[in-house]
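Ops channel
N.P.: pipeline sanity check, posting one input/output pair.
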């Protein structure tokens, strides 16, 4: 009898498989720009939560935005997920800006903290600037905007959310608070905290599954060391610092040949910059201005411009750093304080360190035999074409002169031929 009872219970549990009654939910936290490492984190967490048979995966989100291609990968992972995905924009100061808007609306359940914000999903145009390309940039910008608006429209339709507002978030950069988002059916609910979210999720149907989360415990899935490293490294501030290392390292090696360390550090930084430039929306005009600044700094070391070129280089560097990433996109914005500090340090670096090193290489020798030329000393003996002696730099030297010089008379060193000094009378 007991055996048949066990079989009956197993069958009933199998039949009830459409209802999720697991005791745990997965939780991950995304705080910062949406980068490739973020997509890896989300994809791995979905697989892990699925394998653990969690009730759902909660993604606690606070982001200014990020890369559109990465966002598309995350949205596709949501669509392919076998367990419900809940995006929770939290805490109260959080926002789901730009890419975060797409991610929130693509979730099976979208939730927000009471004072969180969502919106401003307008795509940012990137690339080189120039008056000759104005019309081309306008056309490309319109194409990108239309494509992005179409993308968020399909997300809203698939998840039965407000299509009209979703489109306006892209085309008009609209931002709304949580209460407005709930009223306009942009999100599904507002929760004060994760425990409150679990209570409000309880009993909600997602497809053919019913969530039972009231008594569920939270299993936090942390980033791996690799994901954390890439998330930190793939930051515009880090890329900017690496660009400075490239500049300082290469110029430092040129100014002090054989030092090795500056050149090696600059080469490693250059490789990392090239890798990151394939990820970030780098403005070519900004890079060109920074290269122009370096050229002006180096030129001013040898050209008597009385600091005019250095001033021009400082201005070019500042404008280049300002334009390097699009400041309209919060995810890639460099703070003005960061840019000003880097500009001042770079100007000082070239004015004092590089200038001193390069001038030292091209200045006349100040040690050794060469510094004896031009010195005036007294003859120790009579000096003529046959030879004589002088005392200079702590040593007794053989000296010759086309004009005879008597003992004790002053002579000037004209040149050095081997171990013999050629001198002439000093009148």
């Amino acid at each position: 009898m007991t055996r048949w009872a066990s079989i009956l219970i197993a069958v009933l549990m199998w039949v009830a498989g459409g209802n999720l009654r697991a005791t745990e939910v997965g939780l991950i936290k995304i705080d910062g720009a949406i980068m490739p490492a973020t997509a890896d984190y989300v994809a791995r967490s979905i697989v892990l939560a699925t394998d653990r048979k969690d009730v759902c995966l909660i993604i606690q989100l606070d982001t200014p935005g990020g890369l559109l291609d990465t966002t598309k990968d995350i949205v596709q992972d949501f669509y392919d997920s076998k367990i419900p995905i809940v995006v929770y924009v939290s805490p109260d100061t959080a926002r789901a800006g730009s890419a975060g808007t797409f991610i929130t609306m693509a979730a099976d359940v979208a939730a927000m903290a009471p004072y969180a914000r969502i919106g401003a999903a307008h795509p940012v145009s990137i690339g080189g600037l120039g008056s000759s390309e104005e019309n081309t940039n306008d056309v490309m910008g319109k194409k990108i905007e239309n494509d992005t608006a179409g993308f968020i429209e399909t997300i809203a339709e698939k998840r039965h959310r407000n299509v009209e507002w979703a489109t306006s978030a892209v085309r008009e950069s609209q931002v709304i608070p949580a209460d407005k988002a709930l009223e306009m059916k942009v999100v599904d609910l507002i929760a004060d905290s994760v425990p409150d979210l679990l209570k409000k999720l309880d009993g909600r149907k997602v497809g053919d599954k019913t969530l039972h989360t009231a008594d569920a415990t939270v299993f936090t899935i942390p980033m791996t060391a690799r994901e954390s490293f890439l998330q930190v490294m793939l930051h515009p501030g880090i890329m900017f610092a690496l660009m400075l290392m490239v500049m300082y390292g290469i110029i430092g090696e040129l100014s002090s040949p054989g030092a090795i360390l500056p050149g090696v550090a600059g080469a490693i930084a250059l490789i990392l910059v090239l890798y990151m430039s394939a990820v970030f929306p780098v403005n070519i005009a900004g890079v060109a201005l920074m290269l122009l600044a370096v050229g002006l700094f180096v030129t001013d070391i040898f050209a008597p411009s009385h600091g005019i070129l250095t001033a021009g280089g400082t201005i070019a560097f500042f404008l280049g750093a300002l334009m390097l990433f699009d400041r309209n996109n919060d995810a890639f914005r460099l703070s003005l304080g960061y840019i000003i500090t880097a500009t001042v340090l770079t100007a000082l670096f070239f004015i004092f360190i590089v200038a001193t090193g390069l001038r030292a290489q091209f200045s006349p020798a100040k040690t050794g035999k060469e510094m004896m030329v031009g010195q005036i000393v007294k003859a120790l003996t009579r000096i003529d074409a046959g030879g004589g002696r002088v005392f200079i730099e702590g040593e007794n030297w053989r000296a010759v002169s086309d004009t005879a010089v008597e003992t004790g008379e002053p002579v000037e060193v004209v040149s050095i031929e081997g171990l013999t000094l050629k001198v002439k009378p000093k009148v």
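N.P.: looks fine end to end. The chain has three domains: 15-229, 235-362, 369-425.
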